[in-house]
């Protein structure tokens, strides 16, 4: 629905015009990226100056500062003033993520949380009570030391191959949660600089290193294959814990990860419990990390029209109206339930709790463009059910604990260095101390990065884990 | 012709050099006249000096170019000579097989080797060896540093490059008068003797051309390497050459200024290396007018 939201929004505006006898039509052509959102960003970046980029752009909020700074996206602050009620209905942290230097550059499209999944049957065998677990994690009583304890117990008693599985290939965004969970920070609001929080990064790398040394996480975790290894290992119950995302919930129902088939909603519910990402240690707080997607408007929207100069303002206002309609509660709620992302509006969250609406959606008895209906029919059939709606309702509290990775142009470079460090400690190529030194050396090696990163704190002495 | 050279070579060259002295980024023309002197070069050399990965990258670049160059040139020569003595039909089919790596889309070709060398039990090579009982634990081929990583990148790129030499040498061999080979055959010369005494000496200039061309290609190639590193198949430091380092630094971060400075340095290395190769191998002799009758 990331693309169909715009298609549907345009149709709704067309319908309103038709009803009111306005003889104007919006025609949407779309381009989708199956490879990566980074590619979509790169393409937008290179085509926008030439006037060849699309009018709408949906991507992560992290690109807003660069795009806004270059003048590539539209400042919608003034348009949004007339829609105060709508803006207030979005969760405030998400609206904040769309701002840059006090100006609004987009509307939230979706967001997510990154729960720690727990395999229920394994937990039961080793005596870990999953019913009380979410509350214990929430209260900061169950920390990463406990994760280690139970992971080791499950492995030692032979119930699982691994104690913990996490993502491959990149430290951002899932593993960055460790920094926040150990009370660290990544960005200093006062200076506008990134922060390399040495104690928190050290503790994070130590946890990874210790899990790998004790055979609780694969040493080559960062090179695992998503479809052939990571997801099958989780759904086949070969790991007790898994750092994942809310979207895993429906991904497991859609993709054939379990011995050549997908899971039923009932199986997912029966096999997996989920909690916040636990606090690093006692005294720290549990966390999650969100990466809101945002509707943005090209600052050259409508430029291909010969009368652009004359109609520029109207075009821009119209483009804003399209993203307003694309944010309609039902469109947002449909996207949430079929992709297991969290709704960005309170009204959409309400719809997800409405069983009658869910039933109508399941029957496709909803007001949607026929093309959109046709394209989402199969996924709606598979994913729209009370179990999935309940899951979204259950995890939405996690947004109260959410952190956002810094929307700083140099953040990707810092995150890449973290990726290397995690890989090196997992493989045992470096101790956590050496890996921290490596990160510092890498940051200092690039004068531009160095200027943008504050290195704070020292490696804690006598710190032990578990 | 001159217009083409101007549009496709001279203008980009001048622009690259000029923009490397600006703060150009995010493809935004507003930085076009924001001159920053040698800052981009200074930043780059500072990184060369202080980046803990840089030593590995330089070493990887040297080893990768030297060994892959040998594989490409002599592999191509071997294939051309080998198929020269086969019948036309068998020879051309065999050569076609060797063209597959070059014909295949880069992503598909790299994916094949990704799964082949994958360091876990899903890797084809590991699963075969484990099935045969030769190994009991999967071997992280591309993560064994430095030679494991180097072997994988050399193997994958070597297979692509070898076909170029093969085509050039095959075409050159077909231009050699058949009488020379037939006469040698009549005198009882073996295929090896014919190759050593007649064919290879006549291919000297082609060898020079392939050697220089492949050297420059290897210096600037990064597509396969990018995917193998990005997919974590090979160690990041020992799977990255200077060309890939330039690409990662410049384009993934949107820092064109930095990338253009690195591209200028890479071009200087390429041009110097190219001249050196041609000088050492006596290129000017090839370009002399033939001494035959006019």
Question: What's the level 1 CATH class of the largest domain in chain A?
Answer: Alpha Beta
**Biggest interchain interface, per-side counts:** A-B, 33 and 32 residues
List low-pLDDT spans of chain A. Answer: none
How many separate helices of chain A? Answer: 23
Number of alpha- plus pi-helical segments of chain B: 14
Quick one: CATH class of the domain at 53-206 and 223-241 in chain B?
A: Mainly Alpha
Tell me the domain tally of chain A: 2
Mean pLDDT of chain B: 88
Mind telling me the C-alpha Rg of chain A? Answer: 23 Å
- CATH homolog superfamily of the domain at 53-206 and 223-241 in chain B: MetI-like
Mean pLDDT level of chain A:
92
User: What can be said about the biggest beta sheet of chain A?
Assistant: 4 strands, mixed
**Major sheet size, sense and barrel closure of chain B:** none
Query: Quaternary state, please?
Result: heterodimer
CATH topology grouping of the largest domain in chain A = D-Maltodextrin-Binding Protein, domain 2
């Amino acid at each position: 629905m990331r693309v169909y939201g715009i298609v549907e929004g345009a149709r709704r505006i067309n319908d309103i015009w038709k009803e009111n006898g306005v003889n104007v039509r919006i025609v949407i052509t779309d381009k989708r990226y199956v490879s990566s959102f980074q590619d979509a960003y790169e393409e937008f970046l290179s085509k926008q100056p030439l006037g060849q980029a699309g009018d709408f752009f949906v991507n992560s909020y992290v690109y807003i500062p660069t795009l806004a700074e270059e003048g590539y996206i539209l400042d919608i602050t003034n348009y949004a003033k007339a829609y105060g009620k709508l803006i207030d209905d979005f969760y405030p942290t998400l609206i904040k993520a769309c701002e840059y230097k006090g100006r609004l550059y987009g509307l939230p499209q979706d967001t997510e949380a990154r729960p720690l999944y727990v395999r229920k049957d394994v937990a039961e065998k080793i005596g870990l009570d999953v019913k009380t677990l979410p509350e214990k994690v929430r209260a900061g009583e169950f920390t990463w030391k406990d994760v280690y304890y139970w992971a080791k117990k499950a492995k030692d008693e032979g119930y699982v191959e691994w104690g913990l599985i996490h993502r491959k290939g990149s430290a951002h965004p899932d593993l960055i949660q460790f920094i926040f969970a150990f009370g660290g920070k990544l960005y200093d609001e006062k200076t506008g600089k990134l922060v390399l929080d040495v104690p928190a990064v050290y503790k994070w790398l130590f946890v990874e290193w210790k899990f790998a040394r004790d055979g609780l996480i694969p040493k080559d975790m960062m090179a695992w294959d998503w479809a052939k290894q990571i997801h099958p290992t989780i759904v086949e119950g070969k790991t007790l814990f898994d750092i994942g995302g809310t979207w895993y919930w429906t991904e497991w129902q859609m993709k054939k990860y379990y011995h050549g088939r997908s899971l039923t909603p009932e199986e997912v519910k029966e096999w997996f419990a989920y909690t916040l990402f636990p606090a690093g240690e006692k005294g720290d707080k549990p966390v999650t990390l969100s990466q809101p997607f945002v509707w943005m408007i090209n600052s050259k929207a409508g430029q291909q029209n010969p009368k652009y100069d004359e109609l520029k303002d109207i075009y821009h206002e119209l483009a804003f109206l399209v993203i307003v309609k694309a944010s309609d509660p039902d469109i947002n709620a449909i996207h949430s339930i079929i992709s297991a992302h969290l709704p960005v509006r309170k009204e959409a969250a309400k719809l997800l709790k409405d069983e009658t609406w869910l039933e109508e959606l399941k029957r496709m008895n909803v007001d949607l463009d026929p093309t959109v209906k046709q394209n989402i029919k199969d996924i709606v059939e598979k994913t729209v059910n009370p179990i999935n709606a309940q899951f979204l309702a259950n995890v939405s509290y996690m947004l109260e604990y959410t952190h956002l990775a810094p929307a700083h142009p140099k953040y990707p470079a810092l995150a890449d260095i973290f990726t290397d460090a995690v890989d090196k400690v997992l493989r045992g190529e470096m101790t956590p101390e050496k890996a921290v030194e490596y990160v510092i050396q890498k940051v200092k090696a690039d004068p531009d990065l160095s200027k943008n990163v504050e290195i704070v704190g020292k490696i804690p002495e006598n710190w032990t884990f578990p | 012709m001159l217009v083409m050279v101007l549009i496709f070579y001279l203008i980009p060259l001048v622009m690259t050099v000029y923009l490397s002295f600006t703060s150009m980024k995010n493809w935004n023309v507003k930085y076009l006249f924001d001159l920053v002197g040698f800052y981009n070069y200074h930043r780059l050399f500072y990184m060369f000096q202080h980046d803990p990965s840089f030593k590995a990258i330089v070493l990887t670049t040297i080893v990768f170019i030297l060994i892959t160059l040998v594989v490409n040139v002599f592999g191509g020569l071997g294939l051309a000579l080998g198929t020269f003595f086969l019948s036309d039909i068998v020879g051309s089919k065999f050569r076609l097989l060797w063209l597959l790596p070059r014909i295949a889309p880069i992503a598909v070709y790299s994916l094949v080797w990704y799964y082949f060398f994958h360091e876990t039990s899903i890797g084809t090579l590991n699963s075969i060896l484990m099935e045969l009982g030769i190994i009991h634990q999967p071997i992280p081929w591309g993560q064994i540093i430095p030679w494991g990583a180097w072997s994988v990148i050399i193997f994958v790129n070597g297979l692509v490059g070898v076909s170029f030499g093969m085509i050039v040498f095959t075409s050159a061999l077909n231009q050699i008068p058949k009488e020379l080979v037939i006469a040698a055959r009549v005198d009882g010369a073996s295929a090896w003797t014919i190759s050593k005494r007649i064919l290879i000496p006549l291919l000297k200039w082609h060898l020079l051309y392939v050697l220089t061309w492949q050297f420059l290609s290897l210096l600037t190639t990064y597509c396969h390497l990018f995917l193998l590193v990005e997919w974590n198949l090979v160690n990041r430091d020992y799977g990255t050459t200077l060309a890939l380092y330039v690409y990662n630094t410049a384009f993934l971060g949107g820092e064109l200024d930095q990338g253009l400075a690195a591209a200028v340095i890479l071009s200087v290395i390429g041009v110097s290396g190219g001249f050196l190769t041609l000088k050492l191998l006596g290129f000017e002799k090839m370009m002399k007018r033939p001494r035959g009758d006019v």
